[in-house]
Records
---
Amino acid sequence: MRAMRPLFLSLIVAGLAACSDTGGQQAGQGAPPPPPVTVAKPVVKQVVERDDFTGRFAAVDMVEVRSRVSGYLERVDFEDGANVKAGDVLFVIDRRQYKAALDQAQATLVSAQARLNFAESDLERAESLRRTGNISDQLLDQRRQNFLTAKAELDRAQATMQEASLNYEFSEVKAPISGRISRRFVSVGNLVNANDTLLTTIVSLDPIYFYFDVDERSFLAYNRVFNLDASNGSGEPVAVQIALTDETKPAREGKLDFVDNRLDEASGTMRLRAIVPNAELFITPGLFGRVSVPGSPPYQGVLVPDEAIATDQERRLVWVVGEDNTVKAQLVRPGPRIDGYRLIREGLKGDETIVVNGLQRVRPGAAVAPEMTTLPPTR
């Protein structure tokens, strides 16, 4: 045992020396390298802030088709749901009685015209005889009375003729406007009462209205920026963008053409209306949609990706990379999304270099290994 003790001590010393060498090597390596992050300049371009509201399409013109004369329905001349033009014949009421009344009125008119012609000739002869003294004043007055009576009867016959002609014309129910017609509400053979029986309805499709309500604060902002009262008259109308419920982006444009004259006290909203072209007749009255209204005049805005914005309790911040590759937190006030980016209302000028990817590896005041990228104008 005494002979092995020096050997054991030498092994311990060698082990301590090896450990000392390893520790020195680790100390010589220093701190870990800076974490890699992706950085970019914010997108700076002209933007317009927009607000979205929900509304409903409505027809510019809507007509309930009724007959102006009574009678039994004889014919239906349209297909349910078809597009019709103003003046197209839709329904035909039994015309025989109105044709007979028209023929009778024509005969009465011819008879009245003949009596008037005879009374006029008789009066002219009487006036000629009066100048020679061969007719009494009483007889002249009587012939003048006959002439005036015949003239009045002719006027009455003409009025009766016009009424009979209108009734005969009204026995064909025509489309008062162009648009899409609904189904027939009355079948052939049923009695139609004048101005009472609803036959069908027609709605116009091109253009089409879009009604929506905005809150009081938004209305005041729009009115200050665009002067909606002036745009409702002779001024330039405000352009809006509209999307249907199955569209992710607005695909249709319209113009504001109406602002209601009072605020709805119950809801605290103002009713606005846009007129939208519908040449393809795709939009149907009653559909819902989303309208995007410009909420500001055009200005140079600073845009950043949503993933570049960090959250610190109730605050929003971005990481700004300095010239020495160290990062610092910059508080910002985000706005709405525009072209796939988030608008920054306050906090950035647009010439900063910010971290857009790798935020979880960033620490305040620490250095990073930035990898520069360029953000496209639209995502």
---
Amino acid sequence: MTQSKTMFTKMHGAGNDYIYVNTLLYNIPDPAATAIKWSDRHKGIGSDGLVLIGYPDTIDADYSMRIFNADGSEAMMCGNASRCIGKYLYEKGITDKTSIRLETLSGIKVLQLHIEGRKVTGVTVDMLAPTLADKTQIATPDGSMTEGTLRAGNREFTGTFVSMGNPHFVTFVDDISTIDIAAYGSILERNDIFPDRCNIEFAQVTADGDIRTRVWERGSGITMACGTGACATAVAAALTGRSGRKSRILMDGGTLCIEWREDNGHVYMTGPAEFVFDGEAEP
């Protein structure tokens, strides 16, 4: 028997596009396989992955988010997807809350919705405090790397390890336009120092102090934007004296505003969330 079709919504945050399914209404039996099938940009819907919206496992959260990359691997967190979920829940009438607690594999994130009329014009996400040492994510003696150097092909890249619940290696370059993101990113992602692979950010501080950033995401490849990557880039820039505690991160798909607060050590990300279209498909 052919399974009935599932309603989905495609959304993007700064060009980082995912397919969203409300699992309060629809069951996705094999989300990894569905992510691979639907994410195919030639034979499927086309996206960076699949996001499932559901009930949380804890009374401390309102809803939950699970993310499956285009290759079927499960991600711990996605800042752009979390903003989109805030817009989805509010504008589809699932909640009237403007402050939503979202359960993710990297902890509960608080979404603060910016409302004009009945529309969500932007979302600020409390991404919690960055982690600068984690032996499960980086194989150094103390689980950290500040200004470490890795080789990819014929080049060496000096960068900083930052975890936003998921691992990032941020490397600042002189001219980002000359970097072959796919070639170098794919090698750095799978460097032996990262036990479970790593997201790679290539960044350049512009003349006006903004930070131009391009991303190679583990499991998805080049994406238009990465929320956790923007946060990691801002933290790395502050740690290395390239910026202060507030940064504008310019990605291929748009700009994210990041603040790393001194009072509580949390990173706050503000950016857009947009609907693309609704549809139905077989999982």
---
Amino acid sequence: MRLSLLALLAFSGPALAQPEMSNQVESVNTGEVPISILEIASGLDTPWGMTFLPDGQMLVTELPGDLVVVSADGTISDPIEGTPEVFAQGQGGLMDVALHPDFAENRQVYLSFAEPGEGATAGTALGRGRLSEDLSSIEDWEVIFRQQPKVEGPNHFGNRIVFDGDGHVFLALGERFKFGPAQELSNTLGTVVRLNLDGSIPEDNPFVGEEGAEDAIWSYGHRNIEAAIWHPEMEQVWVTEMGPLGGDELNAIEAGANYGWPVVSWGINYDGVEIPNPPEFPEFADAVYNWSPVRSPSGMILYDGDLFSEWKGDILFGALSAGGVEHVDLEGGEVAGSEFIPMNTRIREVEQGPDGAIYLLTNVSGDAAGAVWRMEPLEVHPPTADDGRTGAGANQNGGSGD
């Protein structure tokens, strides 16, 4: 296995080029690849989603409802105008952001968000609009999908946007902490939906024409999905899904498959009541891999850059409750092992930059502001005598999954 690494965690000021470093925060020695973590920007209000513009600047969503531009020097823009009204309660708000596959021609940006409904209800929605040339506004905004039904409660909105490169967009949805509806095809709670890029329904979706079923559904029986990718070699959407007490899952999504929640799980209920394990009900699709204790996955990439050559073809996702990044070694479409990279803070989003570095959004509670971090090989910015970093770290053994 090639999962061991030396993670040297240090934090910088806002500049991208050889910044002054503050004191070292933590060093973790798990073996092989020296890594540094540099802070690119701070002062974000609960950042949630991130994507790169062609010029290298970033679009970042803030959960209370703003979309901002983060430039290479760490400058954060004023909020972009024209974004939708959001249900900014609990886990809800303005969430994922993604560029249309033909953004260079049409400048369309997709946003997913918790949309308020009548009374105290809300549901996840997906919309798109045109980003102005001066990056100041979203024009011609339209909602192209709404999760049904809208229900009460502030939890489990899901929200990740994935394109397959073949004219479809997938939206991963939570079951809104309502449990049973995730097993029903009559609604889109706890589902992955597949749409054409304009929001219309592809004719080859698995439940099109089935009486009582929502045509948009691609898969169902999910709990809460906040991390998703398109795997081009497997030609599948892959998601990491939050379990209850234990049982976070990595799932390779098959059209029409039922992933079993809440009938089965690799975890147990919050009240301690046990849930049958998936093999007890073979009619449900089982996870490719699962984690206990949980990582609380949010944000995920399939790394294909050259900067971290050892990780090419592997998955990395943010870990909220565990406080770091999970590195999943993929070999031939199967998990060969998994290792946790501790960072002592909640990581909400993971993106690969055009420079091959890995960019992270921190998601912290209380008065502390969220930040953009860049993870790169230590040799890119080697430590100096006065930057607060050293090449030695505490020796911790990295674990691999069973």
